[in-house]
Write a structure and sequence with these properties.
Structural class: mainly beta
CATH class: Mainly Beta
Shape: globular
Strand content: over 45%
């Protein structure tokens, strides 16, 4: 009898697993249906930037040069893409550090959206300077979602609340996150990211 119950439990678990895998992935924000994906990435360490898994650090207070510790994900073209991740600053003696970026790829390569943080916890869009949130202080976890409909809009959510919507041209783009010195910023800073997810539709 025990063997039958145990076998039934194994079968039920397997069936539930198959059902769960057939259900479309639900993202934290935006209307679906969304399909989960796992894009590949390259690690970028430049200047005093150091990457250890999902820990990103700028060890210097240099206010010039290319100081970065990031993951750079593969390029996408067209459709709607969503990024989700949470960051927690573990130490920050510097300020004005970019944490999440959406970049244009060739032939019009360059920064399109950059989310940065000032010492004191203000989150802002580097281009335009709009304040997107506050309270991103040392030890506090903050969730970031970007929803990019190529050729239409790019939306930024902080802790599930929509904070910015800007227009988007067509073309090729890619996601980056970590720690990156902005033109007016400097380290040192340590940031840990977690819960990294991607979806498309």
């Amino acid at each position: 009898m025990r063997r039958r119950l145990r076998t039934a439990g194994v079968v039920a678990t397997a069936v539930l697993g198959l059902i769960a895998s057939a259900i479309p992935a639900n993202a934290q924000v935006g209307t679906g249906p969304w399909t989960a994906e796992s894009p590949s990435f390259n690690v970028q360490e430049r200047g005093c930037g150091q990457v250890d898994g999902l820990n990103f650090e700028l060890t210097c207070s240099t206010g010039s040069g290319d100081q970065r510790a990031e993951r750079r994900y593969v390029t996408y073209t067209g459709g709607t893409r969503q990024f989700e991740g949470s960051f927690r600053i573990t130490s920050m003696a510097g300020s004005r550090i970019s944490l999440k970026q959406t970049f244009r790829d060739a032939p019009t390569a360059g920064p399109y959206f950059m989310l940065a943080v000032e010492r004191g916890g203000r989150l802002y869009a580097v281009h335009g300077g709009d304040t997107l949130g506050s309270g991103a202080t040392v030890g506090t976890s903050v969730r970031v979602n970007t929803v990019h409909q190529v050729g239409s809009t790019h939306k930024v959510y902080i802790n599930g609340s929509l904070k910015q919507t800007v227009s988007s041209s067509g073309g090729s783009y890619y996601d980056k996150f970590g720690a990156y010195r902005t033109a007016s910023g400097a380290g040192p800073v340590k940031v840990t990211w977690s819960g990294i997810k991607f979806w498309r539709k």
